[in-house]
Write a structure and sequence with these properties.
By secondary structure, this protein is α+β, with helices and mostly antiparallel strands. It contains 10 helices and 4 strands. Strand 3 and strand 4 form a beta hairpin. Helix 1 runs parallel beside helix 3, helix 1 crosses helix 6 and helix 5 runs parallel beside helix 7. The longest helix is centred in the middle third of the chain and has 37 residues. The radius of gyration is 17 Å and the shape is globular.
Amino acid sequence: MSEFVVHTIPGSPFARAVLATLEEKGASYRIKPIQPGEQKSEPHLSLHAFGRMPVLEQGSFVLYETQAILRYLDRILPEPSLTPRDAKLAARMDQAININDWYLFQGVSNVIVAQRVIFPALFGLAPDEAAIAEAMPKAHVVFGELARLLGNNKYFAGDLVSLADLSIAPQMDMFVGLPEWEQLTKAHPNLPTWLATMSARPSMKATSWQRVSELAKAS
């Protein structure tokens, strides 16, 4: 099997979901680092027409869109399976992944985390407190719904880790330590408990921002 190459800016939670999935599968991979802004120009646009990340490259096969990558990896690397066999649990997994992509990221993480973490770290910009405040009502809805779906389960799709957990954990981990984290989880203690369980997994430890940055420099 050809080597897996993941094109990304280190720190991307979507790329971390892919890397954590590869770690869960015990698959070897290499990181092809992208500098901020480079994803909007060639040669990256030849791999991803919309100038986003991550991109998975496996020999001559190139694939983008995180959900497509995760499901592809789960099909070609079947053990351990990261998709429940039960149809209802699989549907719950799909639902949680879509909440992550469309609601946790869009309008919440891409505002709050961007203002608190990304813009200061990469561009030296001060957070826009008004933008953060405007995003908080939606953030409360998203965190509340994720907490409801998780309930008393160990993972989002039952007793076994799934692609949903590997998608949401990197996104939610970006909030830890921010002033908004306590506000968003105060009424939902199951979320920090779940995230602690996920953070203890070797796949998450191996794909931290610092670790991915080190791998990118070595590539």
